Amino acid sequence: MNEGTALKSPEELESALGLLGARVRFYSGTEGMGISISGLSKNYEKIVAIAQEMLLQPRFDSAAFERLKNEIKTTIRQMSANPRAIATETAGKLIYGEGGTLSRMAYGTAASIDAITLEDVKAFYAANYSPSIANITFAGSPDQKRVVKALTTLTENWPAKDVVIPEPVAGVSAQRGVIYFVDYPNAPQSMIILAKTAMPFSDPDYYPAVIANYKLGSGSQGMLFDVLRLQKGYTYGAYSSFMAAQHQNLFMAQSSVQGSVTMDAVKTFKDLIGGYSEMINEEMLASVKNSLLKSKTSSFETIGDILSMLNDIANYNMPFDYVKQQENTINNITVDQLKEIITKHMNINDMIYVVVGDAKSQMKPLEQLGLGKPVLVQR
C-alpha cells in the first residue's frame, strides 16, 4: 500500500508527497491496521487526496511485493539472533499457548511469508479494507468544516462492506511459576522476562494498575532500576509495565544482565515483585501521585499526544473525559486499593520466567530459586 498507486510509481508518489511536505504511511500490527497522515496545514486537501488515491487505488506491483517479502524475511532472521526478541517471542508462546493466535509474532515466520501470494494480498484488501470498521481521528489547525469537507470525497468513494473480524484462537498456556530457559551458547549476557496476562485498556483496573506499577518499574525511579542497576550494577536498565490493547494484554518485567549474575538477577526480580505489595505505604503513594500528576500536565503538548488520546477513545471505546477520570483516580486511590491491584494483577505466582542465555553456565544455578528445574525450550 506504500509502494505507489495505480496512477503513480513509488518514485512519483514520494515526489508528490515531498512537494507537499507530507508523509502518508500504511501500517499494521497484531490487532489492527491503519494510515498515518501528517503534513503542512496549508496543503491539507491535497494530502488527503493523495492518501485517498493510495487507499482506493493501490498499485500491488509484483516486483515490489517480492522485494518486501525478502525484506521482512531478513528482519525475521535478524530477530531470530536477538536475545530480547527471542525472549519476547518465547514469552508470548508460553503465555498464549503454542498455536494460539496471539502467540505468533505479527511479522510471521519465513515459511508463512513465503506462502503468501500477491493474489492473497489483493483478496485480503478486497475483503477487509472497509469504512464500516474504520475510525478517523484528526488533530491540527484546520477547522472542523474544512477537515470534514476534504474527507467527504473519501467517504463517498470508499464502498462499505461487512467485515468479520475473527476472535483470537486460544492455545494451551504454559505452567506458571516456572523458569523457561532458551539456550544462546556463549552469550555474555542473559535476557530475563517475567510476564503474565493482564487486562485490556478499557478495563476499570487498567489505570490503577499503571499507578501500582509506577514505583516498581516505570523508568529510572523504579525499584527494579534502582536495585538491579544502581545498587548491584548488573544492567543498564530494568523495567516493568502493563501493555494493554483489546486482546493482547500483558504485564511484563524485563532486563538484560551480565551472564554471570543471571541467578541473582532472577532472584531479585522474584523478590521485588513478590514483596512489592508489602512495600507500598502512604509516603510512597504520595510521591507516586505527585510524579504522575506532574507528568499529566505535559502529556498533551504535541499533536501526536492529542492524536494518541483520540485513538484510545476510538479504538477502545473510552469516554471523552477518560484522561480526567485518570487524574481523579490518581488523586483518590488508596494504599489498600493499590495492594489489592498488586495482588490481583501483579501476583508473582501467576508469572512465567523466561531466560535467554548460556545454558551450560547459567541454567543449573537457577535451580536454587525454589522454582523447580528450569525447562529448556527451543528457539
Automatic annotation (TrEMBL):
InterPro entries: Metalloenz_LuxS/M16 (IPR011249), MPP/UQCRC_Complex (IPR050361), Peptidase_M16_C (IPR007863)
A Pfam family hit: Peptidase_M16_C
Membrane-crossing residue ranges in chain numbering: none
Domain Peptidase M16 C-terminal stretches: 116-292
GO MF term list: metal ion binding
SUPFAM superfamilies xref list: LuxS/MPP-like metallohydrolase (SSF63411)
PANTHER family linked: METALLOPROTEASE (PTHR11851), NON-PEPTIDASE HOMOLOG YMXG (PTHR11851:SF225)
Name of this protein: Peptidase M16 C-terminal domain-containing protein
Organism, scientific name: bioreactor metagenome
